[in-house]
């Protein structure tokens, strides 16, 4: 087992890290989308919408790389 695979399979409460990254990424994506929708409709102003979107993209990339590492044995 190589380094990326061992990171992806690192267990937290008997579940692999990649599972938690996926859940957190989905939650952040939903928050960013909701914030963007509210800003677009003019119902609210969020100072950190762009920062949240950037963090979501970075976390999604890490999650994707770990997932590909499992599939392609990287």
Describe this structure in words.
It is a single chain. The protein is mainly alpha-helical and 74 residues long. It has one domain. It has three helices and two strands; from the N terminus they run H-E-E-H-H. The chain has helices at 3-8, 17-41, 49-72, and strands at 11-12, 15-16. Helix 2 packs antiparallel against helix 3 (49-72). It starts with a helix and ends with a helix. The mean pLDDT is 89.
Topology:
Blueprint: H1 3-8, E1 11-12, E2 15-16, H2 17-41, H3 49-72
Helix pairs in contact: 2-3
Summarize the structure.
74% of the residues lie in helices and 5% in strands. With 74 residues, it is mostly helical.
Number of helices: 3
Number of strands: 2
How far apart are the first and last residues' alpha carbons, in Å? 9 Å
Widest beta sheet: strand line-up: 1-2
Radius of gyration, CA atoms, in whole angstroms: 15 Å
How many domains in all?
1
Which percent band covers the strand fraction?
Answer: 5-15%
The backbone outline, from C-alpha atoms, is elongated
Task: Give, in order, the helices and strands.
Answer: HEEHH
Average pLDDT confidence is 89
Low-pLDDT regions: none
Task: Quickly list its features.
single chain, 74 residues, mainly alpha, two-stranded antiparallel sheet, elongated
